[in-house]
Write a sequence for this structure.
């Protein structure tokens, strides 16, 4: 019988980065970011790396890992809290169980996303209770905001107003101008729509807590294409049209390409790397200063307020959180898009 996923996730949070920093809700989301493999003694598997540098953890037993002809032993009884780093495509790891073992392959991009959101919540004074954090998650998961920088979503949440709507009341009416975007945080609503050849409106959908509506009319500059009516008493978060358009179109953080970042470094910008030490040792940009993101809050005093910083991580997500943290402390910072994954220039390795 396989190891229950909750047991595996709890073991990861108790022992490994970045799971140590995840809340209960974020930990439950992390399930989609990992694959577990149950190995019997002497059983061997080969796992090919991804386009990013994924992570490997052991939660039971012990294994031997072959990586570029070198062998490393991992033991669940003797844990290094930092992840073991995968190779990138097309290279592979060969994992051999020295005893019955459970290993976890974690998607680094997905974990970075969760850690970034945890960092945003921890650094902000707007989310001081579980209800606020839950409502922020509903906003974050809205299709309209899913591809926006975290700062844009946070700022949208700050500007939203909570309104109460009675059962039977229309929130929006088909044909009227679009003036706001909505997130349902309590209650249930029906969507009624009259097509071009219909004589009357027909019910086409039911919306529940966490569902959103209203963005289509705002994005297209059109009128409402449906009526949304509450069928229970409810509460909604609303974002005004002007705020929605501003946050959808205006960047909330300074990001630069690798090419621009290289020129900025040549002109005096300082490079700050916020990855884990093992990632840094594996591959880094010469001259970069390493402060892992989980340590950055307590080590800000190691940075110079008179310097301008470029922030590097694996893909750009952790760097975004670091930027938020440092901007709140009045540092001049920019994020390198794509991080080390897309860095085409000179690098070094402690293992060379």
């Amino acid at each position: 019988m396989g190891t229950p996923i909750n047991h595996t996730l709890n073991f990861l949070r108790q022992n490994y980065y970045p799971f140590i920093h995840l809340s209960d809700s974020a930990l439950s989301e992390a399930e989609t970011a990992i694959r577990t493999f149950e190995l019997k003694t002497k059983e061997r598997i080969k796992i090919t790396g991804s386009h990013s540098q994924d992570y490997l953890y052991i939660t039971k037993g012990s294994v031997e890992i072959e990586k570029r002809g070198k062998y490393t032993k991992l033991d669940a009884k003797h844990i290094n809290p930092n992840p073991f780093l995968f190779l990138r495509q097309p290279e592979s790891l060969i994992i051999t169980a020295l005893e019955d073992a459970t290993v976890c392959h974690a998607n680094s991009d997905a974990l970075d996303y969760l850690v970034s959101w945890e960092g945003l919540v921890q650094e902000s004074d707007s989310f001081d209770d579980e209800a606020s954090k839950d409502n922020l998650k509903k906003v974050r998961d809205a299709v309209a905001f899913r591809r926006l920088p975290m700062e844009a979503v946070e700022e949208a949440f700050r500007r939203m107003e909570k309104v109460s709507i009675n059962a039977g009341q229309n929130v929006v009416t088909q044909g009227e101008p679009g003036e706001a975007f909505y997130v349902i945080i309590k209650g249930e609503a029906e969507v009624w729509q009259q097509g071009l050849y219909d004589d009357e409106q027909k019910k086409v959908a039911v919306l529940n807590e966490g569902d959103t509506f209203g963005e289509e009319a705002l994005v297209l500059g059109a009128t409402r294409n449906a009526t949304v009516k509450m069928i229970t008493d409810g509460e909604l978060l609303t974002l005004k049209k002007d705020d929605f358009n501003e946050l959808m179109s205006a960047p909330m953080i300074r990001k630069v390409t690798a090419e621009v970042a290289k020129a900025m470094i040549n002109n005096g910008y300082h490079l700050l790397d916020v990855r884990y030490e093992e990632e840094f040792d594996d591959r880094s940009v010469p001259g970069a200063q390493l402060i892992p993101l989980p340590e950055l809050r307590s080590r800000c005093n190691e940075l110079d307020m008179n310097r301008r910083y470029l922030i590097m991580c694996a893909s750009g997500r952790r760097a975004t959180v670091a930027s938020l943290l440092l901007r709140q402390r009045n540092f001049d910072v920019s994020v390198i898009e794509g991080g080390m994954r897309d860095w085409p220039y000179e690098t070094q390795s402690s293992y060379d």
User: Anything to note?
Assistant: The chain has three domains: 5-106, 129-148+150-249, 255-342.
